[in-house]
Amino acid sequence: MAFLQFILKRVLVTIPLLIGISIATFLIITAVPGDFVDGWLGRTMAQTGQSREALVPQAEMMRERLGLDQPLYVQYWVWIKNIVFAGDFGMSFAQNRPVTEVIDLRLWRTIGIALVTLVVGQIIGVFLGIYAATNQYRWGDTLATLVAFLGIVIPKFVIALILLYFLAFVWHSPYIGALYSPEFQVQDGMSFAKLWNLFLHVWPILLVSIWAGQAYTTRMMRGNLLDVMNAQYIETARAKGLSRRKVLFRHAVPNALHPVVMNIGNRFDYMIKGEIEIALVLGIPTLGPLIISSVTDRDMYVIAAIFLLVAVLLVIGNLIADIILALIDPRVRRATVSG
């Protein structure tokens, strides 16, 4: 019961945080000079050759219809009120349809890829860190540290560009710039063949994201485990005659996992941003290309909705990390319950 109260308190604390994030997001997006109507005006003048004076009345009517003539605080209040009470994130100016329809499939694709890379990357990073720490200064430690170091220092878009070169010009792969091959685009439901076809299209994103995701975890786990292995209670466990494996996995590893688990929430946000960055290079239809097109079109409600949802995912990720930490560590659990 006390643990559920802890979770409820954490959820309630996030409400003012999300309100602050929504205000900051809205202000940042609208701080850029001009709006969607200004962009439409410039494109129409370039395409039709009409003068600005001739298009201004139509532009003003459009601005009034979209609500862009209202004060900024009125626009924000209408936007946030519709989200809270109706689940309505507004209309996409560029596509003339609800924002939820625009980002629906792309958001779930992004979250799915990010979750896979997060889980696999953390597992690989933890085991590589354990291997490196238990083989300190040997060739395995050097190799694991080198792989982690390269994953940190090399930008993800650079790795994606190298992969794109090999896919397009060396391997002549047909699996570029889409999630499915044409024969699977219209197929309803999911089959093994369609799932395999999806993997053939997205494996470059998974590879780059997992490599980048495990890098920080490997270095963190290695450093934490080396510190824990020198602790007094580890020496006591060895003196009691426990085997090396029991000392490592029963006493050392659970305590070395604390910072890794605490960092899961931030890593989830990192995975989403990393997936967006790689998808831009490889042309995969997730949130990445949508963000760029929305910024270009000044489609403010689409951008605001994406940023707000990513912030919500970051908050949820940190909450999940706290729950996992309380479950794996009796001390944290007791402190949580007593608090």
Secondary structure topology:
Blueprint: H1 2-31, H2 36-48, H3 52-66, H4 72-86, E1 91-92, E2 97-98, H5 99-134, H6 139-153, H7 156-170, H8 182-185, H9 192-229, H10 232-239, H11 244-256, H12 258-262, H13 264-282, H14 287-297, H15 300-328, H16 330-338
Helix pairs in contact: 1-15, 2-3, 5-6, 5-9, 5-13, 5-15, 6-9, 7-9, 7-13, 9-11, 9-13, 10-11, 13-14, 13-15, 14-15, 15-16
The H-and-E topology, N to C, reads as: HHHHEEHHHHHHHHHHHH
Global morphology: globular
CA-atom Rg in angstroms: 25 Å
Strand content: under 5%
Total number of beta strands: 2
Total helical elements: 16
Based on the structure, what is the oligomeric state of the protein chains? single chain
Task: State the separation between the terminal residues, measured CA to CA.
Answer: 12 Å
The share of residues in helices is over 70%
Structural class: mainly alpha
User: How are the strands of the biggest sheet laid out side by side?
Assistant: 1-2
Which stretches are poorly predicted, pLDDT < 50 over at least 5 residues?
none
Q: What's the average pLDDT?
A: 84
Largest sheet: 2 strands, antiparallel
Describe the structure.
The protein is mainly alpha-helical and 339 residues long. 81% of the residues lie in helices and 1% in strands. The protein contains 16 helices and 2 strands. It has a two-stranded antiparallel ribbon. Helix 1 runs antiparallel to helix 15. It is globular, with a radius of gyration of 25 Å. It starts with a helix and ends with a helix. The relative contact order is 0.14. The model has no long low-confidence stretch (mean pLDDT 84).
